[in-house]
């Protein structure tokens, strides 16, 4: 055997060891998830990832390849998140609720922490139609927009493990609720009118609230929508006085115990 072949053989042995250790690591991740589920412990615990990263940095600080090793670990952790998500859910998660309640913020965070794709329904429709939502309403009417929402919900059933931030009106149509439930769990986020006002007051992007940004109007519209939101929900999470990490943890905890 030539020198090069001999070196390559050592490399192959090394790769196989890496595969084997990675498999062990992934099994451990699954074991942790099962243990947390069985014992009702918080599932996401982002602070644990930070501790792990700190420990690793300390461990490799004198290593010649420390930057490369840390880079590889970024991918390892990303994939552990994906395994976590698949251990927890095999379906899609649909976030519904009033304008400004935090659907986009929470779905963005959940999609990062669970390394799962995020779908922003309003944005997908805008991209498909090459038109803003305001323009779609003006040119084709609300019914057309609502049909776009229903068609998108049907399309989303082709994939799993997506975190979907729904348009504020999605739960108003019964067919939409049926479509979401075919391969998904529906999470209703709620907040008081005061909290909603605080969260939307500096933005002009919500046409339904234009010129009516006050708690009286928000309250009125919320009451009209409440029964449909509640009827659609598999779980309800109140977001008042909670940060995004707390909300995400509560969602995952409740979904795990459905
Ligand atoms: N838990 C929270 N605490 C404080 N601020 C929040 C929280 N959740 C969201 N926000 C803020 O409130 C505003 C509205 O949030 P977001 O855009 O996520 O709501 P939304 O439900 O997606 O609204 P829309 O229905 O219009 O799409 C944002 O500025 C966001 O940063
Ligand atoms: O609450 C609603 O009916 C809407 C909310 C937005 O997300 C958009 O989907 C659209 O402006 C309609
Ligand atoms: Mg949003």
Automatic annotation (TrEMBL):
Keywords: Amino-acid biosynthesis, Aromatic amino acid biosynthesis, ATP-binding, Cytoplasm, Kinase, Magnesium, Metal-binding, Nucleotide-binding, Transferase. PROSITE patterns: CHORISMATE_MUT_2. The keyword Transport does not apply. Its main location: cytoplasm. One of its GO terms (cellular component) is cytosol. Residues 1-88 form the Chorismate mutase domain. Binds 1 Mg(2+) ion per subunit. Substrate binds at residues 122, 146, 168, 225. Pathway: Metabolic intermediate biosynthesis; chorismate biosynthesis; chorismate from D-erythrose 4-phosphate and phosphoenolpyruvate: step 5/7. Its cofactor is Mg(2+). Mg(2+) binds at residue 104. CDD domains: SK. It catalyses: shikimate + ATP = 3-phosphoshikimate + ADP + H(+). It comes from the Bacteria. One of its GO terms (biological process) is chorismate biosynthetic process. Its EC number is 2.7.1.71. The keyword Transferase applies. Monomer. Catalyzes the specific phosphorylation of the 3-hydroxyl group of shikimic acid using ATP as a cosubstrate. HAMAP family: Shikimate_kinase. This is Shikimate kinase. The gene is aroK.
